[in-house]
Fold:
Amino acid sequence: MVNYNTQLDRTFAALVDPTRRAILARLEREDGASVSELAKPFAIKLPAVMKHLDVLVEAGLVTRSKLGRTVTVRLSPQPMRAALDWLRRYERFWSGSLDRLAVYAERKEAEARKRGR
Amino acid sequence: MTSLTLVRRIAARPSIVFEALTSPEGIVHWWGPDAGPVLLAETDVRVGGRFRVRFRTLDGSEHESSGEYLEIVNPARLAMSWRWKGGEDPGESLVEIDLRGIAEGTELTFTHSRLRDESTRRSHEEGWNGALDKLQYHFSHSIERRSS
Structure:
């Protein structure tokens, strides 16, 4: 549980930044990109992009592999999946709760009407 | 930054839905992810008052959440802080519920937000980002050395 939370913290801390989210979104569309390709759309310098990639690698959200002079960055889906599972637990909790709340309130409404209110 | 929003249309007037949301008699009928029982429900429905609910899920595990009522507009709006007891998600989050009267009864809009704020902040404080900063420092220095 502790490790699980640490990993989730890392995932969400990494996702806080819009540049990093944009990098992830791009890697979701393309199966791998070089660092310079990734840096192109941004108005920031290459070292700044590399720092963002460090954060993403550290969080386990992307992997870097080097072939010759080219470093290819790829999405590593597991931590995102864990983050989505975590959010889904909340969704299950509230979805189930609100469904039963509706049933209960509707019964109370029917009772109130029967009493002529 | 992380939040969840759900909308439900309920065939009951807002005052009845509000009562179901806030009274212990109501809460025992609906609180929890599955049909497992609510073991304890306490509410003090005023701004600054607290709630505490303990429940068991069908897999046999017990959970407890508590918090403080931050806004109460009977029967239109409810906002409360939210915290799990024990090792479940650390930190405090925010629950907001808006009830709007519609022809068929009530439209309920539910939002649970700030779900990861506290733990993200804590991870910063606990030095995870500090360690990263150091890594980045070394990294940028080795780049500078290479380019010089």
